[in-house]
Amino acid sequence: MDSVNGLTSLRGKKPLFSFGIISDIQYADIPDGLSFLGVPRYYRHSIAVLQRAVKQWNHHRNLKFAVNLGDIVDGFCPKEHSLDSVSRVVNEFEKFNGLVRHMIGNHCLYNMPRSKLLPLLKIPSIDGCAYYDFSPTSGYRFVVLDGYDISAIGWPEDHPKTQQALKFLQDKNPNSDKNSPDGLVGTERRFLMFNGAVGEEQLRWLDSVLCDATNLKQKVVVCCHLPLDPGASTEESLLWNFDEVMGVIHKYNCVKVCLAGHDHKDGHSIDSHGVHHKVFEAALECPPGTDAFGYIDVYDDRLSLCGTGRIESCDMHFNH
């Protein structure tokens, strides 16, 4: 195994399957900059991180698919270059010898409306929504949530979901700048315009998928650009209604792990119901010569993350 930190799967037992993982590439053909917190961002280098990720995944040979946790281009990308930039990143992903499962993040939506973005990312969609599920093997199901289902970005300005999101922000965030958490306390700091929520219809869909997975005795991995647990993420990065989503998830015992990006920092927690929450480092914030990607070996009783560069390897054990 090439540049893998720490853990390797030298336990003799072969994984059921493996998949690649990367988050927050946020590519743009612009000079390096800083986040609003002053963290350096390497807009051009991030595509090199993706190229090395794809090379590693292809070298592995046994990866069933790869998961992109969202934000493939940056909001500072000049709008006239948005299509070219998205296409360039998608073309790099397409060099992977397998399926790539994408999800949308806020930076994707700053660049393009859903109607254009979803076909480019080959995200299955009904009425512009970007949630779906798939089963790589009979014993596992992956659920991809659309964390910007209710959102002030990505939908047309006059869309009911935009109006719902703007009213929600007006009620929850007293600041004139709705991306400012000033004065908000604890998990209320999540009520920012760059976040979003899972709508009622998607919640009902999630409930039905988890019910079905339970009946089929499948273990479930939930993927969402926005984190779902305060223990794994800063409060400012959480899904607006993470508590509602986790309320549905905790009704069942089938969900074992939730994977997310958006926070740009490594985070790992185990919630009160034993569900693992893993948040991934951003490829965008890798200084030249460093990396942030990996792959995950899936077993009956754990997910084993083999990280490269800034992503640390770890085992996520769970009960059968």
TrEMBL record:
Its cofactor is Mg(2+). It is an enzyme of class 3 (hydrolase). Its EC number is 3.6.1.13, 3.6.1.16, 3.6.1.53. InterPro entries: Calcineurin-like_PHP, Metallo-depent_PP-like, MPP_ADPRM. Keywords: Hydrolase, Metal-binding, Zinc. The keyword Mitochondrion does not apply. Gene3D superfamilies: 3.60.21.10. GO terms for molecular function: 2',3'-cyclic-nucleotide 2'-phosphodiesterase activity; ADP-ribose diphosphatase activity; CDP-glycerol diphosphatase activity; manganese ion binding. It catalyses: ADP-D-ribose + H2O = D-ribose 5-phosphate + AMP + 2 H(+); CDP-choline + H2O = phosphocholine + CMP + 2 H(+); CDP-glycerol + H2O = sn-glycerol 3-phosphate + CMP + 2 H(+). SUPFAM superfamilies: Metallo-dependent phosphatases. PANTHER family: MANGANESE-DEPENDENT ADP-RIBOSE_CDP-ALCOHOL DIPHOSPHATASE, PTHR16509. This is Manganese-dependent ADP-ribose/CDP-alcohol diphosphatase. It comes from Rhodamnia argentea. The gene is LOC115741578.
